[in-house]
Amino acid sequence: MTDAIISSISPQAICELLQRRGFRASILEGSDGPIVESATEGLTFQVRFRSVPTSDGTWSDWTNVLVVRLDTQIDSGFVDTWNRTWRYGRLSISENHLLLAMDVSIAGGVTEEHIRVQNQVWDKLVRKLAAELRHAIASDAA
């Protein structure tokens, strides 16, 4: 790991960072540009680049996105409780899908360690959501 300051990053570099942490990761071409796809806790997530890339095809921000299809209803307060409890990831619901999103910005410059920690925060959020969903579904079924 290097202490170099990073102010923009390529999808390939994000793939490599995820792979060094033991995640599988690949780059897909989406209609809006490249998407990094990976998974944790058995749930596939995407790294989506929404801003305009620099001239060398790198970005200074992105959004980690997880979409979970719900086969059952969950308590209407689940999303509100999540959003009050967990600071870094926004949860929303649309019909039978939950969407967890976390914005990451490296504008101004950060170290690779900072990006690694942001990936750890995301991993923790996804794992916590998976556990809380299992609990909520089991509670509703009882």
Short summary of the structure?
This protein has 142 residues and is α+β, with helices and mostly antiparallel strands.
Main β-sheet description: 6 strands, antiparallel
Count of DSSP strands: 6
- Give the helix tally: 3
β-sheet strand percentage: 25-35%
Outline, from the CA principal axes? elongated
Assign the structural class, choosing from mainly alpha, mainly beta, alpha/beta, alpha+beta, or little secondary structure. Answer: alpha+beta
Under the CATH scheme, which class? Alpha Beta
Q: N-to-C SSE series? A: HEEEEHEEH
What features would you describe in this structure?
This protein has 142 residues and is α+β, with helices and mostly antiparallel strands. It has a single domain (11-141), classed as 2-Layer Sandwich (Yope Regulator, Chain: A). Helix content is 34%, strand content 30%. It contains 3 helices and 6 strands; from the N terminus they run αββββαββα. The chain has a 6-stranded antiparallel beta sheet. The protein is elongated. The N and C termini lie far apart (48 Å).
